Amino acid sequence: MKKNLIGKIVSLAATTALAGSLLAGCGNTAQGGNAPAPSEEISEQSVEITAADAGEEVEFKGTITVAASQTPHSEILAEAAKILKEQGWDLQVTVFDDYVQPNNVVEAEEFDANYFQHIPYLNSFNEEQGTHLVNAGGIHYEPFGIYAGTKDSLDDIADGDEIAIPNDTTNEARALLLLQDNGIITLKEGAGLTATVNDIETYNVQVKIIELAAESVKDAIPDAAFVILNGNYALEAGLSVGQDALAYESNDSTAAQTYVNVIAVKEGHENDEGIVALVEVLKSDAITEFINSTYDGAVVPFN
Fold it and tell me: Where does residue 224 rank: exposed (0-12), middle (13-18), buried (19+ CB within 10 A)?
């Protein structure tokens, strides 16, 4: 597999240090995933996770290069690297600060895969950009939550309150569905995962919805009454679904199941040996336990 030629690569002697340093913090992800406005700059924060001594001699199988959002994707990959090196794989992870370049570098086959986005964003990107990226495996989803801004409880919501939400198509729909689930608005019949503010039929409370780039919503916390964040941006703001969300998507909701964050590769590489190994490790019991114990419900394994 190709060695990463982009960005400053720093040898990571202790992979466990990565998670702590990055939590101060993307996405991607998407989220993934979860699409902020594109940045022309690639983050200089880049890591090389190499297979040093694993305690015994293992056959070297190759290098896997992955473009990722910072939180939680690169942290999960850092944990996966410990298992992969025992299998003979070197995992190289480069952190990007936008949701465009990670797809471009995989399309150009400069990287083997990326991990930052959900399937609706992947499909939309392919359609708009003419790329040929496919899902090689669903890994996790990040529930949307309503978080306190200037008000601490949804019971205090009042006419004129501002609610900041992401402005990209997929994430805006999730935010609006969450507002509908909590009785704040009513969407037009049939409006679902492509809903926009134009699909609001009734304001049950006369709130003002402020549409912002996904990565900027957290910055509205000091000014808006409430903000709606996906999991990775909540983490960057020091918040968690389990402890801080006033309301959030249920695990069995259509939105939560639809917006699973995936390993994406260029079409035809889904069954490459390294990609199969990477996905198997990311879906393993060990990584499931790591996710559950680390993110307090802000990131949920998709198994």
Answer: buried
All domains of the chain, ordered by start, with CATH? 10-142+259-301 (3.40.190.10), 145-249 (3.40.190.10)
C-alpha 170/C-alpha 214 separation (Å) is: 11
Closest CA to 140 of 36, 275, 25, 231: 231
| pLDDT tens readout for residues 203-257 | 999 999 999 999 999 999 999 999 999 877 888 899 988 889 999 987 677 777 7
Residue 220, classed as helix, strand or coil, is: helix
0.85 exceeded by pTM: no
Q: Amino acid identity of 142? A: E
Q: Rg of the chain over CA atoms, in angstroms?
A: 19
Contact 77, 95 (CB under 8 A): no
**φ/ψ (deg, to 5) at 111:** -125, 155
